[in-house]
Specification:
This protein has about 450 residues and is an alpha+beta fold. The chain is about 30% helix and about 25% strand. The protein has one domain. The protein is built from 14 helices and 20 strands. The strands form 4 sheets. Strands 2, 3, 4, 9, 13, 14, 15, 16, 18 and 19 form a 10-stranded mixed beta sheet that branches. Strands 10-12-11-20 form a 4-stranded antiparallel beta sheet, with helices on one face. Helix 6 runs antiparallel to helix 7.
Amino acid sequence: MFEIITNDEVKEIKKDENSAEAKILENALVNSFINEINDEEIKIENENEENQILEKKTSENPVKNKKRFTAILNYKKELNISKKVKKFHLFNTECKNPNDEKILYKSGKILLFTYRKNFPKITNYKTKKTYTTDAWWGCMIRCGQMIFSHGIYLLLKSKGIDTQTALDVTVPLFNEYPIRKSRLHPFFHGMLEKYRNIKKDESLHIKEFFPPFGIKTLCDVGEIFERTAGEWFSDVIITKIFKRIAEYFNLFSNPQLEVKLMIFQSYIDMPQLLKECFIEKKKEDNNEEYIRLHGKYYYFNKMGIVFVNVRVGLDKIPPEYYKGIKRLFSLKSCIGIIGGKTRLAYYFIGYNDEENSLLYLDPHITKESDKEVTMDNILGKYINKEIHLLKMNKMSTAFTIGFCFTKYSEFLELFNFWQMVKLEENGLKILGLSKVDMNYVFQKDNDEDISPTYFDKEEDDF
């Protein structure tokens, strides 16, 4: 189901330790861990449970992985897309043939989340009714999982993790069933430390817990915004829930994967973004890459995932915005749009070049929940084979755009886009910058392209 919600309808709660929000978050964290034992009770086999995921800890100097994950191509074989499409863009890649190997491989790394059934009971805190399926009410939650999981996947790829491992690490973070600690990459062990601090027992050995971005945790934390199981979650609310969970659970606290998750309403607050992802220091070298604002110098420090909640028009998106919306997908840092039309939520991942239509993944299919995430069911249930089309004049005017930048060059490309949008008379000018006068420096003689993202270029085409 998809409806429109205004920003004023999102209720904010003070963030002190005794606030209602803090208690909801703590309860969600404490209740997520269902199996724990002390260190002295650990048996040898528990230590042997650590699988290949943990063995592939990322080093400071990632090794290039040039082996393509061929299982994606072997599984997909072909991509089902409307016969009306002659030329389309899947994110920033143009394609004339839906069965082109490059497109098949690229689309195979965009995870599909759909309605699920027969998962562990989750309770509506208002009515005490329990649910074992999210059919008919969880489509925006699933769209949120799609866009956020894609951002996390790209973050892992930027750290040199190969495609198969990145998919195998990402999916369990969003599963319905509890997962074992051995499936949690060390990058995300911040939530385990947070739990030990709350329990005031550093010797606790965590064995199983509900995933931080699984539907149970999302519904538990949804109480902050007076949303719960069985009810509709807007794109505004689901992105805010992601931010609350990531920050409170210390999901991105590992020094090797420092990420700031930011949410803006229509306009980008550049001073706030600089505060979150850059570090202020004195200018030391004219050749360094920096941002200058109000006489201060900022240097890139942390990766960022940015969600921008926008509303364009009243009943329909005005035609003058079509070009600007399509141009979003030209950015390397764009991770898509979540929105839809009345009563239906979709995840938009590209556009049709010959029509004013967007390509989307559809979460409105009910599948069986998986007690254990394996590569077989990742390929069978999370790798999408069908892409749909929706004309922009049928879209809801409220939607959320996602961006993910992992280094300075990617941020600069994004900043230049925002700057260009702000100056244009037409286009997506609603997605502009707060009014600031900024200067930046980029080493143009650098051998590195301004837009590349990942180490294994032969494997990935993002």
